[in-house]
Amino acid sequence: MAMADESDASRIVTAFLLNTCRLPPWPSEHHIEAAMICGEIVTGHSDNRSEFIPLLTGSVAEFYIEPMLLHVGDIDVMYHADTKLAIPEGYPPPTQLPAEFHNHVKVHEILDSHFPGYVSLELRYLLTRRTDNGTYEFTEYERGRCLSRVMFESDKFVYLYRHGPSWRYYYDDVGMLPLSLDTVYCLHCLSWPPQAGDWPTRHRNHDWPDSATLDRVVNNGCDVVGVAHHQCRQYSCMGAHEWRLSFSRAEIVLINSWMPVQQIAYHILRVYVKTERLTENVDNSEPATVSNYHIKTLMLWACELKPRSWWTENLNLVRICAELLNTLSVWLSDTRCPHYFVNNCNLLDTSLSNAEVTSKLMYIDETYLSTWLINNYIAQCAQLCPSYISRLFDDVSTSLKLQKAVSAIVDWRLNNLEFDLWKSVEFVQMSIQRYVLSYPLTVRSCEYLMKELTKIDKRFCVYFSAVALLYVARKISQNGLSDKLMDILSTILGCNFSQYCSILSRCEIELNTSELVEILEESAVEQLTTCRQLEVRDCGSRVTVTTDFEALYAYKLGDYQRCLQMSTQNACTLSYTRCTSSISVYPEFVQLLDDDIVSLIALMQVINPDCKHHSKYTDITQLTLSLYLMTQCQLKLHHSVTSLAQTLNCIEVAQRRPRRRHSYRSPMPTHVREENTLDLLALKLIERKAHLAILHAWHAK
């Protein structure tokens, strides 16, 4: 590709990166995916005595920017059992533990190994919680019982293959968890480890991290993960009992304290080493020379050692990244990558040859990197845009042409903020519904998900609460009210107990199942309507009606006149919109529908049992639902032939509308044509009903 004047290229690239890497608040689809899988981990457990406590780590937890190109390669989750704890060697057993821990906890002492950063774990104490004051008493074990990491390798969720100390998963279900998932078993240590004791107090010239951040890091403690030093892996006995200190909790706090320019630089460095395949070994027989952890370590040291002015004055992201890559080349040349937290710990394997990668990084300068970013980064972003924008990159031989092409991408991305927000909200709602479909709700999973969803966006907690209320209502209708459902219901309503206290009191006093189900459904519809109102507020023209759930519920209650009024207004409004929201008719929502459409869904599932897992068979748009309710209400209220004929005309117009579903994974509104089967069949059903009613009326005359 021909290139613009190199003197302007760095400036244009820097401006592009600053303008396209979005900042919060923004509902991240990756955070939602991670929250859902953490909810699965919370729900599952290894035995009847212990439960798992997840921690989201890696890219999803570290990045708060959202670049145009995908910046999350997989979802990383660490999890520890509530029955195990690690403490530094020589520390007294704790008498107080966080509420998440079990009444009986085995405490393992962290012992130094021959290699800095690596340790072994010796069982030392059994803690037992007292019932009178909640403190823990301890019983001491005999020394010499070291914990083997091998015993936990089979104690994982369903997996496909091993990846370092983690197990990697792939989910290819439609739209759900398209990224790979790495889970890592660990033991949590509530104290900052002596192996990194110098880190909090070492001299820092540029006051990063500041004292508040240092305190947060130290108070979070650390973890221990099951991986041996590379020199011990060939010795089965030694390697089986060796663990590694993990500072993921510290890294999350530190990286989230970075300035946006530092996060963007971190992203660009990761993109470069991945695109240039520096993180891969030629024949995969040995570890790669450079990993993402080396890049993270490089950035952590740079943020501490470089003054703020180095990052912000005459801001040039290309220059910053080029200099950092040069520093990495020096590390590789010296075969020395100093651990950020642990003294005398080298993250590079001295037995591996780094010459080829070192040579490649050594000669990177601002001119080379700006050209590389235009050809390999910005050009990729252009491919996410409409063709009239991507074609601008056929010729960027001058600075003016490059600036024009880059500005077109930036403008288009900014102009699609509303669409992207709407798309993310739709994805979140789908993910929540599919989670409730796939995993039985428990008190622990409800508590966890409500807390995590609130952190991302309060509206998602409201939506989850609504779906969970419908879940409880469905279970009560099928099997009656149980103590388990009562506990779940109390958990869901606990965050706003005063508003719903009448539900619980009625439940306890009367145990009127049908009345309770009705109250739960009504409460769920109120919350779903609140979510619709928030969508309208934030997504504007993408979501134009808020009463679709209210209309649906009015129809179920037999209030056909009110349902008809709302549905008619909704249909008129939606007829003029390009995209509308959908309702996924999973089991929780089926109970709000009438027998005809439920029978239609059941028939689809009899013909194709897998269709219940695919959104094209479960989604019905707001427009189709409104027309369906209009037709049904007109038939119930015995409306005139003229009225039915007008509705039939609206149905035929809706059938001719192009049905397009967006790609949830793409950050841009790139559409792919995909017929929505349920939507089409629902329209066909009411078209036939309207035709038959009109024919019957004519024959009656």
Walk me through this protein's architecture.
The chain is an alpha+beta fold. It folds into 4 domains: 1-20 and 260-415, no CATH class; 44-257, 2-Layer Sandwich (Beta Polymerase, domain 2), CATH 3.30.460; 417-543, no CATH class; 558-701, no CATH class. Strands 1, 2, 3, 4, 5, 6, 7, 8, 9, 10 and 11 form an 11-stranded mixed sheet that branches. The chain has a two-stranded antiparallel sheet with strand order 12-13. A hairpin with a 5-residue loop joins strand 4 and strand 5 (118-129). Helix 7 (260-275) packs across helix 10.
Number of domains: 4
Distance between the termini: 75 Å
Give the assembly state of these chains: single chain
Shape: flat
By DSSP (H or I, 4+ residues per run), the number of helices equals 28
CATH architecture of the largest domain: 2-Layer Sandwich
Largest sheet: 11 strands, mixed
Indicate the mean pLDDT: 84
**Tally of strands:** 15
CATH first level of the largest domain: which class?
Alpha Beta
Which regions are unreliable across 5 or more consecutive residues at pLDDT < 50? 154-164, 166-177, 661-674
Rounded to an integer, what's the Rg over CA atoms?
A: 29 Å
- Share of residues in strands: 5-15%
> Helicity range of the residues?
40-55%
CATH topology of the largest domain: Beta Polymerase, domain 2
Helix/strand-derived category reads alpha+beta
